[in-house]
Amino acid sequence: MTDQTNTAPGPAHPTALTKVREVVFSSPIALIATVLVTIIVLAAIFAPVVSPHDPVRLTPSERLKPPSELYWLGTDAYGRDLVSRIIYGGRISLVVGVGAAVFAVLSGLFLGLMAGYIRWLDAVLMRMVDGLMAIPNILLAIAIVSLWGAGLWTVLIAITIPEVPRVVRLVRSVVLSAREEPYVEAAIAAGSSTFLIMRRHLLPNTIAPLIIQGTYICASAILVEAILSFLGAGINPETPSWGNIMAEGRIYFQINPGIVLWPGLVVSVTILAINLLGDAVRDALDPRMAKRGIDR
Amino acid sequence: APVSAQTIIASKHSALRVLDPILTTAYMSRNHGYMIYDTLFALDEDVTPQPQMVDTWEVSDDGLTYTFTLRDGLMFHDGAPVTGEDVAASIARWGERDSMGQVLMEYVDTMSGSSDDPNLFIIQLKEPYGLVIDSLAKPSSNVPFIMPKRLAETPSTEPVPEQIGSGPFKWVADEFQPGVKAVYEKFEDYVPRDEPASWAAGGKVVKVDRVEWVVFPDDQTTLNAIQSGELDYWEQPPIDLLPILEANPDVTVRNTNTLGYQTIIRPNALNAPMDDPLIRKAAIASIYQKNVLDALIGNPEYYELCGAMFVCGTPLATDVGSETLTEGNGQDLARELLEEAGYDGTPIVLMHPTDVGTLRTQPVVVAQAMRDVGFEVDLQAMDWQTLVGRRASQAPVDEGGWHMFATNWVGADVFNPLVNNMVNGKGPDGGWFGWPEVPEIEELRTAYATAETLEEQKEIAAQIQELAYDEGMYAPIGQYFVPSAWTSNLEGVLDGPAPYFWNISKN
Amino acid sequence: MSDQLLEIENLRIALDGNPDQQVVKGLNLSIRPGQTTCLVGESGSGKSLTALATMGLLPKVLQTIEGSIKIKGEEVLTASPGRLRTLRATAMSMIFQEPMTALNPVARVGQQIEEVLEFHSDMSQGARKKRTLEMMEAVHLPDVEKMYRSFPHQLSGGQRQRIMIAMALIMRPQLLIADEPTTALDVTTQAQILSLIRELREQQGTAVLFITHDMGVVSEIADDVTVLKLGEVMETQQVEQLLRHPQTDYTRDLLRSVPSQVPRPPSPAASDEVVLRTEDLCKTYGGTGLIRKGREVRAAQDVNLTLTHGRTLGIVGESGSGKSTVARCIMRLIDPTSGKIMVGDEDIAVMKQSDLKARRKKFQIVFQDPMRSLNPRREIGESIIEGPLNFGVSRAEAMERARDLLELVGLPGSAIDRFPHQFSGGQRQRVAIARALAMDPDILVADEAVSALDVSVQAQVLDLLADLQERFGLGILFITHDLGVAAQICDEVMVMQTGKVIEYGPAGEVLGNPKQDYTKALIAAAPGRHWDFANFRPFSEAPASAATPANQS
Amino acid sequence: MVGYIIQRILAAIPVMGFVALFVFLMLRLTPGDPAAIIAGDTATPEQLDRIREALGLNDPLHIQFITWIGNLLQGEFGTSVISGKPVIELIQARMEPTISLALTTIILSVLIAVPLGVIAAWKHGTLIDRFVMLISVLGFSVPVFVIGYLMISLFSMQLNWFPVQGFRPIGDGLGEFLHRIALPTFTLTLLYIALIARITRTSMLEILGDDYIRTARAKGLPEARVLMRHALRNCSVPIITVIGIGFALIISGVVVTESVFNLPGLGRLTVDAVLARDYPVIQAVILLASLIYVVVNLLIDIAYVLLDPRIRYS
Ligand SMILES: Nc1ncnc2c1ncn2[C@@H]1O[C@H](COP(=O)(O)OP(=O)(O)OP(=O)(O)O)[C@@H](O)[C@H]1O
Ligand SMILES: Nc1ncnc2c1ncn2[C@@H]1O[C@H](COP(=O)(O)OP(=O)(O)OP(=O)(O)O)[C@@H](O)[C@H]1O
Ligand SMILES: [Mg+2]
Ligand SMILES: [Mg+2]
To answer: Within 10 A of C228 (CB to CB), how many other CB atoms are there?
Structure first.
């Protein structure tokens, strides 16, 4: 009787690609978010092709021009085209965002797995993680950037370090709860080594939460970069990033609010889109949702 | 404390941190010094020294003994009268720190008060020196401010423990919050001179009860605040915001510092390839001041192309050796020089402070100019304090050293060969950051110090400038003016190389 | 007709209101005042949904697309939200399966009961409290004043369920809907709750719609029985009638699958070879806090057991008695505090994990929850071959064997590349068994391996285990709280209570003729123990030979 | 309970120790020299060295660390290298604006965000829900200073409702205090509304699916009662937790807000100190911020016990 119920229902287990498609098309919002992120990323990648002007070259005679046919959003205090700078700025901002997410996730994953499985290390590591979490992230980042000198790498490190503890905690908690799962115990019973258990059973469990966490880190890193620039501890102002376009342009707010508001808008839209994507991923991966899907 | 009509709220160009104007050359500390201390002499608007604390003075015929009589009734804020002893101690301390003071001290045999008359102050020279009064009237960092002897005896490497002067304002220590605000009150017992105020000379008549220097961390906020009347005086609004301020009928905008600022680029003569004068000259030749000033200031009303190392508008001004800077035609010369020097493409480390509004543009423009003629430039962003720490390093570039940086000087700090640090040719030992070693220029500076007439001084200054350009010691990359803005209810704001708060009334 | 209290006609509930996705398909049901109707059927047959629809509490994704539900002649499906709220407390009320989660954890239980009065009566505060305390006494709660102020977590499962009942009955509704109110409880507690419901029905004349999948419970409490299968009513009958003369095959199958409380004859020992022996096995949890000592739980004390080749040893006992602890110690998933675990002549109790690895082949485990014991992200084939791969079997070979094993446990070999969620619960449990067998173990530990399954599936899995045991001579350590299941499969039974073994012997002895009071109480509390469901008659009417299997061997 | 608190306090010691070591090493192993800053442009290397000597910067690192920790344990935070003022005085003078801003922000955010989150969860999937979620994601996405500028330009410059900048201590009168702190509070609040509304909605959604909510509904309780009494109460733990995490965030947000609105708070003290390499101040402020975070989280853990009777320590 049970045999007849369902020996072959549904498609095979969803592959990565179908999963992605599922997420993207899960709701109109997710679709819009995907489209936005794609546009922004493509614009950044093909910046040299799509930017109307050189984003770095100074043209003092053209400074602080209002929006015009030539300069769609006007120019900044150095006579550089705002549109081009925003497009190029995406490169740095996205590199910072994605870089911070990747570094934080990878190092957090490594440390979290260690902590989740090695008792004595856990105690030490968790104290350090607690300590790092206690230091307000902007203060830490400012300190690191201004002490080590403002380069892309420093900014990246400064933004990443405060995020790592959160990832460590996340991974550790996933590992700790997965470790209680009967299938992990079954693996132990099957004589699998700790390493194999981590790779086969624990690691895959951390992927979904990490993707979600990664999108949030990415979004927050872009924001933090902007704030660091604002506080004068950002990336070299010669290189455009969304943060330092706004930071440099802010005293001209009353002259041409666009200098701050346009990059601000781009930052907001990007972060919004990334966050929405993160939400969509979460919804798609939410175990309760998944369960409902199966019962059907 | 409640805001009264008789309080001036002023936003200064940066936060007051170090309260000892002898210990540091920071302009904020100098401005602070002008509030609470008085000076023996001061320059008037004709750049001529006038007695300030001094009532009368005379020089012995051999030119070796200077006797100064202080005005009656001068009093420190703690109630003690000002004596020659105090003056002697203060000048001695200043002489340890200040570059012009150090030169003066080389000529001074003794300095003392007098047991007969507490108002007397006597300087005994070893040999005649033409710049005694000019030194005592030095208008900008470090200014020879007079403080009580007990404080002046503090070692010159340590800050004075108390802020007691005999100036027109008193320091309100309780309300001082570093980085937030500094508060001054009128010193009721101050006796101003009778002459009208002119720069820091003349009568320092205080017409308000209090002055508060408030630090605004954000220019945009400052702009909003002065427009909404929450701020009375803005020392250095960014040039780009001036049109907004000028358009506001309730705000007055005026340039009070007529000598303005000299912005400079300084190569490091210790590190290859900048140790080669040809390379230094090539870098300088590549620069066109107009590009720097357009990017930095924009509005030509507020800048001047000026190749004079000792500042345009002063007696020593000359354009010798500066053609490429002001004409912008040095690119070919620069390429030739590079060729001649055999530049191998070593990247030039140009330090770029990103947190100081008036300094973050120059490196960008200079880098572009240098790249245009064939330099490799490594523009390294950092905050100003990192730069300050790093520029002190004489090490090679890969050990934390550097090649070039830019900074600004107020005109009065560079307006003669003795105060102008960049033409110091003493090299790594006793020179200023960058440390070019040019013995000839040191001889010329000594000659300048002992020159008798202005004509002679002018000639020597011109020779110094020519040599300095030829050695590529540094380049002024433009002179600019930073007007101040204040609400129209302030009256009597004085001109001068530093901001003064006497003579201002508020209604 | 109008004398019916509850009348459900042609009720259809569908997912998203989509008629192609009906989960309840044209259900008819009616209850007279004072009558108890049982709704039975396997998991997913629509029992809960029917109840929820009656209360107007269906989850949003499910909608009634047809039919009517009348309570005292008043239509529920179209009632306004306000009216529905009034009806809920005064005309009908409901208690739920999970006493652990059905109460608000942060509110005092007394107030949770009293809250009903606050909204559905105009009593003064004092009167409300008094009524609440009375009600709490009526459901036989001890020390009601104190209990009134307690939080749910401070009460036992049975006490919480009593609170739920008090809450449901405080407005004296005519209809009480009880959705599996005892499934999560121990048999002894279950017996108490069942008798409480009977008592209240008699005193207050309440009609009861009782939902359960347990035929034992049905035989104890029902007047009428409605059997559901996949949303459809199979039959409705008076209880005695149904048990004796089931009308449909489905019902007959259902009844046949109910495990008999009477122990089966022990299987002949294939050999006397001892495969597993524990000596004074002890496990104490906690007590290792650095600053302050954690609460100590002595979960297993001096457990001595012997498992022989080809035989099944059952461990029974109430929740928390230490059954799983013993199993996990034996598997060395946790480290025993003291004592020996002899496998062959090696003591694995203190063996290092690295040395243990090589011995793991010999003993394998099957867990209670078939869903959670398979990694949902891995194809079942991968799960099955994980062990063999660890022991150096080549991948191809292991896969080959995995296919054979799937066939062996009654699944197509082609299912090997499917994921766990593509199987039903019973199938998943078969996969888990296949995985255990892949290691060719001598010992199989089954910790509540069939508890989560419907009776019919449960019967199949039990058959499978017995079959495998016969073929491979497995020694099985079978852990269960269900005496019926234990009776079905065990040769020997060990009864545990609070960590101690209180009775241990041949299954027929222990279950048929218990010596200890605790064991006796346990057996007495098992519902439906007088009824031989498989043969559609009470045991009392059975031929003597079948009733007492002790004389059989 | 007391035992638990003591245990938690003891557990904070290694955490704070790590923070201290981390901050100390980070500062000392990086370039920048406070002596150069004090001395100004014309100082000679010997003068620099003398200043360094006087500041104790020439001692070996471990000696400096031990001295510092030793002093700390005696309640001695040292003096600012730059201004010469005792660090503790600097911090005291700067506490009020920061703490005021943090508290007003948290209070206002909770007052707005919790009801929003509850409504969004209750109206799950409707337009209202979407709208609330959009607002909260937006609050997350716009850089704080952009919000600040927009607020000033709208509410101060255009409408003249609030002053542009500055802080008045609460001692000068509540009205003036609120008038000045309003805009910075609104600015930061937007961020916190986002944070808190999200978590409220999520945990409400989760809890609305719980069995006891069904029970409450089965009892015939009005929806408002179900939401507020049964659901919200059970969300308090995650909400409080987020407020605790938010405390760390708020200190970061405060840094920017203090700049935009010219509030003389701790954030700016730190930024200034970092830019000036004022080691004793940086160390003390970061340590203090971490301590506040640890304490707030301790208080939150204690709040758990009060809010959720299931959680009992000792
Ligand atoms: N919230 C829901 N969303 C979607 N489908 C549901 C939901 N609740 C129940 N179902 C489906 O409705 C059908 C009947 O469910 P119901 O809960 O009534 O079963 P049941 O007979 O009570 O089973 P059990 O004995 O497991 O409690 C099942 O197939 C189930 O998957
Ligand atoms: N990891 C643990 N830490 C502390 N106590 C535990 C732990 N695991 C179980 N216990 C306690 O040990 C006792 C025995 O638990 P065990 O799981 O062995 O019982 P069980 O007989 O299997 O019960 P059930 O039928 O509910 O599964 C219980 O009181 C339980 O609360
Ligand atoms: Mg059910
Ligand atoms: Mg168990």
So the answer is: 27
Q: Cα separation of C467 and C487, whole Å?
A: 16
Domain D87-307 has CATH 2.40.400.10: no
| Residues belonging to chain C | 553
Task: Record the tokens describing residue C115, joined without a space.
Answer: 């809250």
Mark which residues 188-247 of D lie under 8 Å from B by CB.
none
Does residue C291 form part of some domain?
A: yes
Are residues B82 and B75 in contact, defined by beta-carbon separation less than 8 angstroms? yes
| Shortest CA gap B431–chain D (Å) | 8
C and B touch with 3+ CB pairs <8 Å, answer no
Residues with CB under 5 A from ligand 3 (ion): C 48
Closest in B25, B181, B386 to D41, CB measured: B25
**Interchain pair A147, D138: CB under 8 A:** no
Q: Where are the beta strands (DSSP E) in C263-392?
A: 274-285, 297-308, 312-316, 338-343, 346-347, 363-366
Q: Is C324 in the pocket of ligand 2 (CB under 6 A)?
A: yes
> What is d(CA C243, CA C133) in angstroms, rounded to the nearest whole number?
40
Q: Which residues of A touch D251 (CB under 8 A)?
A: 136, 138-139
CA–centroid distance for D129 within its chain: 28
8 Å CB contact between B280 and B403: no
Q: Which chains touch D (3 or more CB pairs under 8 A)?
A: A, B, C
Q: What are the start and end residues of each CATH 1.10.3720.10 domain in chain D?
A: 87-307
Structural domain boundaries enclosing A158: 22-46+78-289
Cβ–Cβ under 8 Å, residues B409 and B381: no
Looking at the complex, does the CB of residue A32 fall below 8 Å from at least one CB of chain D? no
Whether residue C164 lies inside any domain: the answer is: yes
One domain for residues C226 and C336: no
> Which residues on D lie below 8 Å from B389 (Cβ)?
31-33, 36-37, 277
Sequential pLDDT tens for chain C (553 residues): 457 888 899 999 988 888 888 888 889 998 988 899 999 988 888 888 899 999 888 888 888 888 899 888 888 888 888 888 888 888 898 888 777 788 888 888 998 999 888 888 888 999 999 999 988 888 888 888 988 998 888 888 888 888 988 888 888 888 999 988 887 778 888 888 888 888 888 888 889 999 988 888 899 889 999 999 888 899 999 988 888 999 999 999 888 888 877 777 777 666 778 888 999 999 988 755 444 455 678 889 999 999 988 889 999 988 888 898 999 899 888 889 999 998 878 888 888 878 888 888 888 999 887 778 888 888 889 999 998 998 888 999 999 999 998 988 888 888 888 888 888 788 888 899 889 888 888 889 998 888 878 888 888 888 888 888 888 888 999 999 888 888 888 999 999 998 899 999 998 888 888 888 988 888 888 888 888 888 888 878 776 554 444 333 3
A135 to D286: CB separation less than 8 angstroms, yes or no: yes
Residue of A nearest to B238 (CA): A251
CB C373 within 8 A of CB C450: no
Beta-carbon contacts of A240 under 8 Å, excluding residues fewer than 6 positions away, are A55, A56, A80, A85, A86, A88, A89, A92
**pTM: predicted TM-score of the whole model, two decimal places:** 0.78
C 502-531 → A contacts, CB under 8 A: none
Q: Is the CB of C481 under 6 A from ligand 2?
A: yes
Ligand 3 centre to CA of C47 (Å) is 6
Please report the atom of ligand 2 found closest to the CA of residue C368: 27
Domain limits for position C104: 6-256
- Give the position of tokens 């007849």: A4
- Chain B's closest residue to D262, CA to CA, is B216
Contact C424 A5 (CB under 8 A): yes
In a domain, A10, yes or no: no
Nearest-CB residue to D31 (from B214, B220, B390): B390
Number of domains in chain C: 2
